[in-house]
Specification:
206 residues, alpha+beta, four-stranded mixed β-sheet
Amino acid sequence: MIELYAWNTPNGRKISVALEEMALPYRVTPVDITQGAQHEPAFLAISPNNRIPAIADPDGPDGAPISVFESGAILLYLAEKTGRFLPEDRRQRVAALEWLMWQMGGFGPMPGQVHHFLTVDPANRAYGLERYQKETRRLYGVLDRRLAQVAFVAGPLSVADFAILGWAWRHERHQVSLDAYPHVQRWYQALMSRPAVQRGFEVPLS
């Protein structure tokens, strides 16, 4: 059984959704990042960057245990382990990797900065909040244009969709209305209606 070390964050939800969609048995070990649990030696042993999520798989390559940190790496590991949600078609696989990296490099760090600056004293947050909200909305526009062409970002449903969904789930928190992005809204509603996705968001991570 895979051990998922996570907290109730977008990056944690990416993995719980993927595990549910892949029908892999797992259990959750909450890592309370509000209390500094991510800095404890036992967690650092599997996640040296002291960030959630991480997993420990007792049945890794060649049947030997393995731990994996960084949500994008975890998603790729799980896709390869199960043979699911990473297209075999080479062009679609490239697209899945592109959009997974797009999420990791932008659609996560940028709305994450919005979340931060919303907590800053209003007298000191104007520049940062404006900068990161503008970039977050630009990224929603990029995603909307892509989803005007395909049902899911790689064509078929893939781990890239799970990665992006984790952050789109917090669209209200980063003050984005999906009404302004109809193709994202269609995609979001389609994913959130899937039973496995619903279970992935319901499983307690904190």
